[in-house]
Specification:
- By secondary structure, the protein is of the alpha/beta class.
- It contains eleven helices and twelve strands.
- The protein has two domains: 129 residues, ATPase, nucleotide binding domain (Nucleotidyltransferase, domain 5), CATH 3.30.420; 148 residues, ATPase, nucleotide binding domain (Nucleotidyltransferase, domain 5), CATH 3.30.420.40.
- Helices cover 41% and strands 23% of the residues.
- The strands form two sheets. It has a six-stranded mixed sheet with strand order 1-10-9-8-11-12, with helices on both faces. It has a six-stranded mixed sheet with strand order 2-5-4-3-6-7.
- The termini are far apart.
């Protein structure tokens, strides 16, 4: 057992942590989304530590665009989305909403947020953000997701729907192998005391330190011995957490494993995690994400909307 905590929630959605930055997102980017009240929509929302992304799917099954905005704090999310609904003239137009959010650790937290989102759609489902990333990676019922961005978490699921996670405790108690962890280890090894203090006292210290991770990965790949040691340790932490989840779920044979997050999005880094998992005795069948997590949330919302429609016709 690593210093990350292993938690099990049978029959419930898993705990989540970490953030993912959308590709090519700006501080405020809105792509054309339908304003027609006639167009029935299913909306997926992915709320990370830095960005909120939303995707709308029409009743015709086609994606109608995306929204990328700076993410609010979770307690402010309901007010934030109501403003977005008014701006886009979606009120009364959305049949189902799936919100994949950070910070919904427990069933009661998901229930609280679901109640707060009432009125945005007839059907509202709240899931942890890492579950949306899992669904974006795996098209079957079984698999492991290694998420490493600003934070880190490993999430696994069995064919019977049992979820197990490792990590996800944040920068104070966990996040081993994450961008923040990599940046912090690099600063400890190489930065002056003045640089360490300057970054540690910033208001956005966690994000600023995590932003160092791509440079550390690049240095490791280029042969820097200190960077290489930090990256090997990071990959080892993630691999051990994934091994713990695999054993806790009792998975045998070739285990589907995928990666998500800004750090795991680096193919060279992800390949090192896969090799580290093999050294831990896990037979890995590596998977790449099929869609973005926000699209997985939107597809789940479309399924909820279709189910509601079928029941209404019955």
């Amino acid at each position: 057992m690593t210093c990350a905590t292993l938690a099990r929630e049978e029959g419930n959605h898993p705990i989540s942590r970490g953030s993912r930055t959308p590709h090519n997102a700006r501080n405020c980017q809105i792509m054309s989304l339908p304003r027609h009240r006639e167009c029935r929509l299913a909306v997926g929302v992915d709320v990370g530590g830095t960005w909120l992304r939303a995707a709308a799917v029409g009743s015709d099954g086609h994606r109608h665009g995306t929204v990328a905005l700076r993410a609010p704090r979770v307690p402010e999310l309901a007010t934030f989305l109501r403003r977005l609904w008014r701006r886009r003239r979606w009120t009364g137009c959305v049949d189902a909403l799936v919100v994949a959010s950070r910070g919904v650790w427990l069933p009661r937290e998901r229930r609280r947020l679901t109640r707060a989102l009432g009125g945005l759609a007839p059907r509202v489902l709240v899931i942890p953000d890492v579950e949306a990333a899992w669904r974006a990676t795996h098209d079957g019922p079984v698999g492991i997701l290694v998420l490493a961005g600003t934070g880190s978490i490993v999430l696994g699921r069995t064919a019977r729907g049992r979820w197990v996670r490792a990590g996800g405790l944040g920068p104070l108690l966990g996040d081993e192998g994450s961008g923040f962890w990599i940046g912090r280890q690099w600063l400890r090894a190489r930065a002056s005391a003045a640089t360490q203090r300057r970054l540690a006292t910033r208001g956005d210290a966690v994000a600023a330190i995590a932003a160092l991770a791509p440079r550390v990965v690049a240095r490791a790949r280029g042969g820097d011995p200190v960077a290489a040691r930090v990256i090997r340790e990071a990959q080892g932490h993630l691999a051990r957490q994934a091994r713990e989840v695999t054993r806790a779920l009792g998975l045998r044979g070739a285990v589907p494993v995928g990666g998500a997050g800004s750090v795991m999005g680096n193919a060279w880094f992800a390949a090192g995690v896969s090799r580290a998992l093999a050294r831990e005795g896990v037979n890995v069948r590596w998977r790449t994400s099929r869609v973005a997590p926000v699209d997985a949330a939107a597809r789940l919302a479309a399924t909820l909307a279709a189910d509601r429609g079928r029941r209404g016709r019955a």
